[in-house]
Structure formats: structure tokens, C-alpha cells
Amino acid sequence: MNLAQIIDKSSYLNTIHPTHRAEIVSGSDRIHIAKDTVIYTEDAVGNFVYFIAKGEVVLSNDKGQTIKKAGDSFGEEVYLGADHYISTAKALNDTTIYMVPTVSLKQLEIQSHKDKVPDGLFSSFLQQYTKMPIATKPQKPTDTINSVSWGNLLGWIVTLILPLAIYFGLKTSDIESESRIFLSFLGCSVSMWMFRLFPEFVPGVFLLMSTLMFGIAPTNVVLSGLSSETFLLIMSVFVISLLITNSGLTHRFAFFFTNMVSNSVLGLNVVIFFIGTILTPMVPSIVSRTVLVTPIVSKMVQNLGISNKSFLSVQFAASAFFGCSIFANVILSSSLMNFVILGLLPVQEQDQFQWFGWLKAAGVYGIAVAIGYFAFMLTTMLLSKKQEIKQSAFSEPLQALGSLRREEITSIIGIIILTIGLLTNSIHKIHPSIVSLFVMFCIFGFGFISKNQFQRDVDWPFLIFMAAAVSITATIKYLGLDLWLSQYLKILTSASSNATVFLSYICVITLIARIFVPIAPTIVLLSTIFIPLASNEGVNPWLVTFIILVAADMWFVPYQNSFYIIFEEAGLINNQLFYDRKKFILFNLFVGILKLGAFYISIPYWKSLGLM
């Protein structure tokens, strides 16, 4: 048996990447040990972990003896932090072993094997004392050609056929050949999005690359998304939110407020909801907010002794989830998709619906949602079974955080500068993207975000998707396809007796599209299609995108909402949900209806603003 075969059979090394496996093998030494030869003695200093290729080795110390056989390892203690061996290793017969430097195994911790390798070596080390077999974790099933789903197969067939169908189907149309080619590639990308064949940003990049290769539009048009102010704005907001979350300010904030109302179930629910709400304008990623808040809430529900079958646990889960997400459309910086939509709007609307313009337009909708949600929360709390809760110790985690650290103070200063810059925008006329870039450069300049954090923690796939979305829209406009599409959508506008009916049609179309297509492509594609129609119906383009955002956020089954899936994973305790999923889905259904109701309640207000 050689080292490669030993690694293959190891329960904790067999999943490492082949490149890392080759590095371990190339850095090892193979030696032959004669029978009864001592390999190392107790207290000897060493930097090697040994793997047995042939023969047997006995480990001896004052606790007893352990025999290691071919395929086993020994000497793990120096990898785990000891500066010397704690047993004497001696060959029981003629033995062949591999000496692997601990530094080679330490590299695996850096290379995405953080848990499995240390756990496996520790388990192997404990065998000397417990005689227990090495703990193994179930491996995830590996995808094979046999595991390809029928949905994927259908997706690939449609992806291959649809572009050809579009290209030849439009041969007799009045559009240019470049436009036909572009629409063919667009159809291919839509199919990839619809069947979820790739991560969301890949079809967008594919479409841009295809457009460039075929010379369909000038480079400055195709790559306009990368140079847009929206791209700079969202990148800098990402960095600011990174500092806020990594500094621990959000945890301090959460524990401070929960400690204030730790004796009241209603108070805890309200505070949990407000924690998510207050994080909303500061952290633009719903996923990040959810991951921050959910573990705290799930642990709190467990510590309070609340059953995961009770409606009270569902109420806590709802406060955490909807606190982080229900106002995602009300504030520009509360959702990454809001920035994408901003980039798709005409230039005049982009200036009009910056932070406070957006908040002013969506304000009544947000108030209506808040009133409806709290009324429902109070009703469900009154109907819920009363439960005594134990005095929890939120003050102890707060004490553990200590006094404000330099990073937290900088986060607060950054928020203040950004807020002042936005509030005084009408005076200095500096674009919000420049203000946020200034704060971002200050953060880099004072060394609060490292290069590795910038590479690792910024959501670059989303930024690429956003840039691709803006570029696709610009290309469609350059080719005049927006006007061509609007001619075929006149059937929709002609069926609309007024602007409200027109927006209702868009809402229904969005809800149907969301059954098949992920949220981000749905919002981008439908916004691109319907924005040109807005002026014909006397509706501001922002309002068209707003109803698309509201309808796209609605979901009825978990697969429709990636935020909810991450919410579930973040709140698992011992691999179990801390609430009843079915009851939560019913709760979510009410919130969806509430959002739609708030939209229609806001219509008179939007008319008063001249948006419709």
C-alpha cells in the first residue's frame, strides 16, 4: 500500500482535492523500519505524522499500549499542538511507513478542509486512550451522470433548442440580424436561469461574452454595467457593511436590546423584529442579516424552553425572518436587488430615487406593512398559549463583548459620515456613490478591511450579475429591442383600462414567472421588458419596478426563496428547526397578502406624488 492508497482509504483524508493529495505525497518520505526498531521515543521532539504502509507499530506510554496497523496513522499529537511525542513508537515487525510533515497537513486547514482533517487526526490520536474507532462523518453523495435529474436534462435540451428556434423563428421579422443573434443568446441565458443550470451570474456573463464575440454592440455599451455608478455604489456599500458586521457592532446591538426586555415574550419578539429592521438599511444583503440574527434567536428559543412545535416558536422565527426582510423594498440600501433596479432605470429616475427619494416614494407602503404586521403579531400573541419564561442571561454575552472597540467606533463614524453625506446631497450635489466610495477608501486606508477579506467576503458573483444586468439592459436599448418588444406587448397595455390594472397585470405575471425563474433574473428581465411601457400607461418606471420587486419577494414554497432556505440552515439546532415549518409557511402567506394590500393602499399616495 502506498500513501496515495492510504489517503484514499482514510475516512478523513479521502475527500481532499487531488492537488492537495499530490502535495502531501510529494512532501512525504517513505522509509523501511526493521523489526523491534524504535521509531521515536516518548518526549522526543518531532514534526512528522506517520502513516503505516506495511507492518504494525506499537505505541507505548504509562497509559498502556496501542497497536497501529497498515493504513493507520500515529504521531498526530505534534500536529495537534504538542511539541513532543507522548508515546514511544516501535515496529512490531518489518514495517514501511510514510513520514508526512505537519506543515503539509496544516496547509489543508487553509485549503477548505478546516474541520474534517483536524477532527480525523484528533480522533486517531484518541484511539490510544479510548480504543474507539475513528469517528467518521457521512459523506455527501457525489453527483454522477446517473444522478442528473430529468429537470436538468430538459433544461439542457431547451437551452440548446431555444436559441435556434428564436433565430430561425424571427427570420421573417423586421429586426436586424444582430438583434436576432442577441435574442437567441438571451433565450439561451433565460433557459439557464429558468432551469437553474448554473449560478445566477454565469448566464449573464455568457450573454455578455457572446455579445462581445459576435460584435453585436460596442464594447462600451456591453460593459457599461462595470463602469456604472450603481456598480461603484453597491461595492462600497458592501465594504461598509462588512466592517459593521465584522466589528461585532451588530452583535452588541442585538444583545443590548434583547437584554432590555428579557422578561417579556412580547417585548423579545418586538425587539427581535426591530433588530432586523434597524440592520436593514445598514446591511444590504438579506442573507447577511438573516445569518446574523437567526442563530441568536434559535439559541434564545432553546434557552427559554419554548417547544419547537408551539406557535410561540413560529412567532419568534417570524420576528427574526420578517424583521430582516419585510422592509427590503422600502429602503434603497436594504436589498442588493434595489441597486440593480436603480441601475436599470432611466438616468432621470436614477437621480430622483436615490436613498431619500426611494424612501419617500415607498414610505406609505412601508407604514402600511408595519401596521398590518404588528396587528397580526399582537393578535397571534394574544391567541398563543401563555408560557412562563426563564430569566435569561443576555447581560453576560454583552459583558463578554467588553467596551466599544476601535473597529466598532469606526463603523459608527462611517455610518454617520454616510448619513450626513446623503442628507446634505441637495447642497453639495455629490453623487451618493462618491460619498460611499470615500467612506470605503477610509476603511481601507486605516486597515480595517484586509485584502483577503475584500476578496473573500464581498459577494463578487452578485456584483458581476448586477453589472451584467445593467449591461444587458443597455444593449437591448442600443439595439432598439425595447421599442420592438413594446409593440408586441401592446396587447397588455390595450387591455389595461387604467394604470392600476396595468400594475396588477405586471404583478400577476411576476408571480407566475417566480414559479419557474429565480428571483434575481425575474426582476431583471421583467423590469427590462416593462420599464419602456411605463410612460405609455402614465406610470413612473420606478413604480413598475417596485411592484415587480414586491411580487418577486412573495413566495409560497421554500424553493422559491433562497433567503428562507439560508434562514432555515442558520437556525438549525442539533439538525432540527426551532419552529414548525408548516405554521411558518401559513404565516408567510399572510405576510404576502399584507404586502399586496399595502401596495394598493399606497396608490392614492403615489397619485398625489405624480408617479401615476
> Order of strands across the biggest sheet?
1-8-3-6
* Contiguous runs where pLDDT drops below 50 for at least 5 residues: 140-146
Average of the residue pLDDT scores: 82
Shape: globular
| Cα-to-Cα separation, first versus last residue | 77 Å
| Structural class category | alpha+beta
Strand content: 5-15%
**Measured on Cα atoms, how large is the radius of gyration?**
29 Å
Total beta strand runs = 8
Features:
612 residues, alpha+beta, four-stranded antiparallel beta sheet, globular
What does this protein structure show overall?
It is a single chain. This protein is α+β, with helices and mostly antiparallel strands and 612 residues long. It is 63% helix and 6% strand. The chain has 30 helices and eight strands. Strand 4 and strand 5 form a beta hairpin. Helix 9 (229-246) packs across helix 20 (432-445), helix 12 (286-303) packs antiparallel against helix 13 and helix 14 runs parallel beside helix 26. It is globular and about 95 Å long.
What would you say about this model in short?
The protein has helices at 3-9, 18-26, 102-110, 116-130, 150-169, 177-194, 201-213, 219-222, 229-246, 249-260, 265-279, 286-303, 311-325, 336-344, 347-352, 355-383, 395-401, 406-423, 425-428, 432-445, 451-457, 460-479, 481-488, 490-494, 499-516, 519-534, 541-553, 562-570, 581-601, 603-609; strands spanning 29-33, 38-40, 48-54, 57-61, 64-68, 73-74, 88-91, 95-101.
